[in-house]
Amino acid sequence: MASKKALVIGGLGVIGRRLVQHLSGLPDWETVAVSRRSPDFESRARFISADLLDRADTAAKLGDLGDITHIFYAGLDGGIHAENVERNLALLVNPVEVVEPQAPSLQRIVLMQGGKAYGRHLGAFKTPAKETDPRYMTPNFYYDQEDFLRDRVKGKAWTWSALRPEAVGGFAVGNPLNLLLVLGVYAAVLRELGQPLRFPGKPGAYHALTQMTDAELLAEATVWAATEPSCGNEAFNITNGDTFRWSSLWPRLADFFGMDTGHPLTLTLATAMRDKAPVWDRAVQRHGLRPYSYDSMANWAFGDFILHTDWDVILSDGKRFRHGFTRTFDSEDRIIETLGRFRAERIIP
After folding, report:
1. Which of 239, 275, 231 is nearest to 118 (CA)?
2. What H or E segment, with its residue span, contains residue 22?
3. 251-287 pLDDT tens trace
4. Which domains does the chain possess?
5. Among residues 100, 261, 65, 232, which one has the least CA distance to residue 161?
6. Can you tell me the distance from the alpha carbon of 28 to that of 46, in angstroms, rounded to the nearest whole number?
7. What share of residues in the chain are helix, strand, coil (percent, to 5)?
8. Which range is the signal sequence, renumbered to this chain (predicted)?
9. CB of 265 closer than 8 Å to CB of 200
10. Is 142 a catalytic residue?
11. Spatial CA neighbour of 210 closest among 128, 298, 122
């Protein structure tokens, strides 16, 4: 019998989806997931469709969840922009203010953040970034969300934790903020056009050190952060635990897709890929792929954000190692492995 009951906010994003799947495989967890969409996979979790930006709808849909023991926040509104404070704050505040007062057994709220907590989106920043680094000048919705929890927890029995992954990728379809599908669809389109696989980012980004976080590793880390006593009221960087350079990975990607490695050529993917849906549709027909829509597969602005970062992006995993979560992945190997799974499931050619 389940002894813990999770509420996952953002249950069908690349992070939330993998977390729901992970929790569903744990016998001592019962899971309720909130998303605007319906799941496209089988799960033991109960899914609720709710508009969390609407306080009345939030109360109507989540008002009976008095037995929740853990809240996992993986929501996002408005894409990757840190400045979108008002709506992203409401996306956390509304469900917490509805559920927390009626959940006497609530133990912990886990907040998903990311490298933008260190200003990685603004330019070269101090690396390796550590959880003790000072904040930069706002606006940043991560700060507002964390401050809300810091204030809310005063005098309460529950605690919070914040996790900071970097460039999350994993086996998840239907959420375009997935780095691996950005790479997979980009390569499929170029191959369909008979072109080599060119790195589309800035020259400096091709050689800079960078990191990513596998969604499976992040799901395990999230449950650890929710249940480990020493994680209460603490923040943790969560990456694969290594660094890599695109210049090292790119020839392996070309080999995986059976393509030549082209000379890097800086493109704005949000512009260059805007009209490529017909090319993707041809690839889907040619290779007998599952008919996911082009727009649901990849967010090209997200691809530009990652691949145009021409400075090192390194978050220190030392704190989470010291607190007991030590799992790592070789990022290059994991990327190739996960792309192979997308291919086996007929999602990319």
Report:
1. 239
2. helix 14-24
3. 999 999 999 999 999 999 999 999 999 999 999 999 9
4. 4-167+213-238 (3.40.50.720), 171-211+243-344 (3.40.50.720)
5. 232
6. 15
7. 40, 15, 45
8. none
9. yes
10. yes
11. 128
Model pLDDT, residue 191 = 98
What is the model's pTM?
0.95
Q: What is the DSSP string of 26-47?
A: -TTEEEEEE-SSPPSS--SSEE
Q: Which residue is catalytic, options 4, 5, 61, 116?
A: 116
Rounded to an integer, what distance in angstroms lies between the CA atom of residue 143 and that of residue 242?
26
Instruction: Work out whether strand 46-48 and strand 168-169 pair parallel, antiparallel, or are unpaired.
Output: unpaired
For the chain, count helices (H), then strands (E).
14, 9
Classify the C-alpha dihedral 327-333-336-340 as positive or negative.
negative
pLDDT-derived band of residue 37, with 50, 70 and 90 as boundaries?
Answer: confident
Euclidean distance between CA atoms 161 and 222, whole angstroms: 9
Q: How far is CA 134 from the centre of its chain?
A: 23
Percent residues over pLDDT 70 in the chain = 100
Q: Is 276 a catalytic residue?
A: no
Q: What pLDDT shows up at residue 187?
A: 98
Q: For the chain, what's the residue count?
A: 349
Mapped onto helix, strand or coil, the DSSP state of residue 208 is coil
Strand segments, DSSP code E, in the chain are 4-9, 29-34, 46-48, 70-73, 108-112, 159-165, 168-169, 213-214, 234-238
DSSP 77: S
- Indicate the burial class of 302 (C-beta count within 10 angstroms; 0-12, 13-18, 19 or more): buried
- Tell me the average pLDDT across 173-185: 87
Instruction: Return left, alpha or beta for 152; rule: phi > 0 is left, psi -120 to 50 is alpha, else beta.
Output: alpha
How far is Cα 269 from Cα 192, in angstroms, rounded to an integer?
17
pLDDT at 1 > cutoff 70 = no
Backbone angles phi, psi at 149, to 5 degrees: -70, -40
The catalytic residue among 142, 143, 186, 206 is 142
